[in-house]
Structure formats: C-alpha cells, structure tokens
Amino acid sequence: MNFEITEEQEMVRETFARFLDSNSTTAQVRNALDASGHDPELWRGLADLGAFAMRVPEAAGGMGLGLFEAILLMEEAGRTLASGPIAEALVSARLLGLLGGDATEDLLDRVIAGEAVVTLARHDITARPKQWVAGGAVAEAIVARRGDEIILVAVPETARKAEANLASTPIAEIDLAVLEATVLASGSEALAHFAAAIEEWKLLMATALVGLSRESLRLASAYACERKQFGQLIGTFQAISHPLADLLCDVDGARLLVWKAIRDIADGHPEAAATISAALWWSSDTAGRTGTQALHTFGGYGLTTEYDIFLFNLRAKAWPLAMGDPARLLEEVGRRLYAGETASLPDAGEVPVDFDLGEEAGAISAEIHALFDKHVTPEMRARFHYSWEGVVPEVQTMLAEHKLLYPGLPEELTGRKISGYARTAAANTLEDIGYTTPAAGVSGMVALMIHRFGSDELKSEVLPRILSGEAICSLGYSEPASGSDVFAAQTKAIPDGNDWRIDGTKMFTSGANLASYVLMLCRTNPDVPKHKGLTMFIVPLKAEGVTIQPVYTFQDERTNITFYDGVHVPDSWRLGDVDGGVRTMSAALEMEHGGGFDKVQQAMVEAAEHLCREIAGDDGRPLIEDPVAQTRLARALTHVWAARMIGYRAQWSSIEKKPGHAFGPMAKLFSSEMFQSDSRDLLDLTAPLSLSKREGPASFLNQCYRHAHGTTIYGGTSEVHRSMIAERALGLPRTRA
Q: Where would I find the Acyl-CoA dehydrogenase/oxidase N-terminal domain in this sequence (predicted)?
C-alpha cells in the first residue's frame, strides 16, 4: 500500500506550485476577471513549464506523462484559482496529438507553446449545435464530436463572445454548427479517444476543485484563528470548527476518490468508469458546500470583495457547472454500476499510489477463510453478531491456536510475526465472514498494556488466559456523568494496606457480563488536574462488590452499567505508575490504525441492491431499473469508496510511521456519519420491505439502520473527533476547556 507520489512527481508538483504562487496570486486573479477570466501571461508561463505538453504523446512532440502528473498540476491550479481553461486545454492538446496528424501539427505546436488556446465541446454537435464551452471566449479552436466524426472547429474572434457570468470565467455560448470545421478522425477508435478525453477532463476538474476546496478551508481556518467575538477566537466555537472538520473529511475523500479512479484505470478494475463520475460528482458537491461554509466563517466580511474568499466561493460553483448539472453525474454512476453502461477510459500512465495489501495479506486472508470453512459450524455462525454478544468461545480458541486471535499484537506475545498490512487483511477478512465482535480489540489492548506495564503476577495469571482466548476483557472508562470525557472519571481507588479499594460506577461497560476482567480507569488523586490524577487497574469482574446490571439498546446489543462497592484488588493488579494512567493508556495507540465501517457499509449497499432487485416499482419492473434507485445506491456506494480510501490512508500512515494529521479520527468520523445517513436513505428506498426483520437482506438493512446510530457515539462521539480534526489538521484552537 502506498499513498505517496514519486520524487519526480513531487518535483513536478513543487515546480507548478512555486510558479503559481508567484503568478496566480489573488491580485492577479482579480486582474484577470476584467479580461474574461483568462491570463495570457500566466498561460505562457505554464506552457514554458511544459503544462500543455504533459499529456500529449511523445510521438506528437509532447511529454507523454500520465494522469498523476496532470492532476498534480490541476490541484495547484485549483488552489491558486489559475485563470483559464487549463483542464480543457490539457485534454484537447492530447486529442490533437492522438488524432490531428500533419494537418494540425502547427496548431498543436502553438498550443504547447502557450500561443493558442484550444478547448473542448462536451456534447455531440449534431444533437446540440449551440452549447456553452469552457474557454470558448478565448479559444482559437474547439475539439468536438459530430456524429461519428471528431472535428476541429475554428473559432474566429467574432465568434468569441465573452459575457458576464457567475465567476467571470471565459465561458461562452457558441453555435458550433455554423463555424468552419476540419475532420480530425472518424470511426469507433476516434470516438473512443474523444470519450476518454471527457473522462480525463472529469478527473482533472475534480482535482482542481479539491485544490480550491483545500485552500478555502485554509483561509477560513486562518481567519478563525485571528478573529475574536465575545472575547474569544471564533475558532474555539464548535459551530465554526466542527463544520470545517466535516468538510476536510469530504475534501480529502474527494482527492482519494480521484486517486482510486486512476488506480482502477491502471488495474482495469470494473469500477473505474463509475468511480470517475463519482469523483467529479463528490468533488463538485463538496466544493460548493466548502465554499459556502468557508465564506460563512468570515461572517459579513465574507460578503465583501475586500476578502478573497468570495473568489473561491464563486469558482467552486462555476468550474463544474460548465458541463451542466453535476447531479447528472450521479445518475451516470448509477447507470454504470447497475444498468451496464460502459465508457472509454484514458491511459493512466505511471500510478504511484497502490491500495493492495500485499502477498502476506492475501495469504492470511486465505488462511482465515480456510479455518472458518473447516472448523466453524452453521450453529456457530448463527451466533455471530457485531456486538459483544457475538463472541463464540470455540471460535476464539480456534483463532488463538493458530495465533490469529490478536494479529495486532507484537510477535513476542502471539508467537507469530504478522506485518501491519496482513493485520489489516485479517481484520477485513473476519468482518467479511461476519465475526467482528469488539472483544478481540479490547482484549488485545488489555494484553498489550499488561505486557508493557503489568506486574509479574498479571503476566503469569491473567495474560496467558487472554492470549489463549480463554478470557476476554471489558473496558471501564466511561461513567454516567462523564461519557466520552474519560479523564473526568470519579470512580475512586484508595490505598488500603497492600490493596486498593475501588468505589464507583462505570457506564457502557459492554461485555462485562461475558468478560473475566475489566480495564478500570480510577481517580487516585483528586487534588491535581483531572488527567494527572488517574491510575489504571485490572479488576476481576467476579470480585466481591462488583454488580453488573444489563442495559439494552435498540441496536440488538447489550451493554452494562457496573457498580463497584468496596472492591479490593492487590497493588500488583495496578498497571503503570500511580497517577500515571494517561501514560499507560498511550500503549493502546500502537493498535490504533484508524479505520471505520466501510465493510458493513458495503454490505448494507449490497443488501439494498438485492432488495431493489426483488421489489417491484410502480411500473411493475424491478426497482433496480428505476434511475432514482440507481442514483441513491450510487450515492451510498460513493460514500463507501471514500470511507474506504480515508481508512486505508489512516492505516498506511500508522503502519509506515507517517505524519497522521488526524487521519484516524477522520476515518472514523466520515465513515460513521455516512453509515448513519445512508442507512436512513436506503431504508427509505426499500420501504416498506425494509421494515421487516425477516431473515436476509431486509433484516440486515433494518439492523444497519439501528447499528449505525451507535457508530457515531461509541469510541468517542463524532463531536469529539471533529474537535480532534479541527485542532490537529486545521490548526484551530482547542474547542474544549
């Protein structure tokens, strides 16, 4: 797995970034507004750096670079609001190189040199002779389709009619049918090249919108760190910081969808065409929402032209709308996924990013599948459940015997060395199979803490029972009055001879009714700041004074409230130093690779698709044939893809020890929020059958709706994760006291 570009590609990115920082400042962007949104000097400078030769084949005098080099340019162009139809020029120059031959050699040379602008008409002019063309107000020629021909339309100056528009871009409405045209090529191969150019444009435009959106967030965050209201920086207000944190997840998801699309093209993946359209739809929607929220952060000043944020707001809408309604892209995703629509795809070139987990990961996955096929009975599988109640002792023992129960633990504990990517594959495989209880994660974390901080007694008495699968552990962090604020714990541990006496209450002690031990966070010093006066203990749940009371949720889960009344544990069952509980907790971070709920999200979409094939629509045909149903399934699947990519990035950064910038919290936040919103929509789409708990997809979809609500709460609420993202990734001030 890799989320880094090559050194050569980084040089390409830095070269364009430095040039655009100097030559596409917001002052220069404003000046270009008076020139129909085009900056000829900037255009020539980009040409000098090879921008318009990047995608032109070497045989035609170009550089023959791949899509990744092009999107690196486009993200910087979006970040700096570069003036002119750059995406259109890149794909048009490539088409001239592929189809033009000797007849257009001189024009192509001038395009590569920045002396002429060529752009693209997206619609067949036999059906739509008069159409809006991005860059049409400054283009010397337009590449277009006419039936089964690809033509080059010459645009005289008299036909380049600039007019006032939303963001002062050089868009123009042109009647292409009345202008002189030269046939470049005809037939299926020519049409395929043109169609591929449209797909390439989608990726380039999606990336430009990512760059624009990222810069909008940077400007809004910087302003929120300097603007005060009511005596406080506005960045401390969650009403300001939390929407920006949400949008950062969306923006990064958009970038990663583009990366997925290019990787899919290179791999010949059947999802490639759908992912291209999904990437532009999501980028367009995200850019519009980001531009609005970023401007809103500036308050009334955002409405003035004194601040630059309005430029980003307007171009966020104007750039993608040159093609028409972006919602049509989501319909296209639906057709490509569920109606068999195909598309011609561009050549990807060198693709540095890779989302494959590797050979070891594949071997681990195959081994787990084989174990379950051989040893797990249908009766055992019937007990599987995503909650703690899904623990099956026989399965625990089987996994432990094969050293696969805790793949996230180091080799010295499990006796088996497993790489980080293979650990990810093991977790993914168990989720695919349906054996996904939280017990393994919590118990593995406790085992690691005992290994690092435990006494010889704990290591000899408790640790082997956990590692063998004989015992599982519960988590005693939350309390009735503190919830996610675990450092506010009030359950007391007071020295009593060589023992500690524990008194208090823990809430949401899930699995306590099944577990042998609870990892307990207790207050041992009330006279110091709350995070400094905490100590960690292992408490046997069968100890005298422990009471476990069930609490049932509407998610088909059982959790517990646990009471501790004069519970005594020996000092040897303490983990770490007295008042050093926070440091002890940090050991668990080694097992935190980020991630979310994309597996169950995927299964949810597949269940909804199954129901759409079963349910008859109003016209009597299967609901899956309804474009509205296809679109809604496509939207949910787009969210799955983005969630998966954000999760992969978090895992990669953890395994490779790369700076995380809140990648883990982003993965959890985005995935859980999308899971919740899509579960609602898919429940609606497949109603009233989805109301049923009859065995199969209906019951599963019904369960997903209930399950999703918990994912935004446990493991830290979405609000906690939004604050972490705002602070770590956007540099905003703390939003909590």
A: 6-86, 359-470
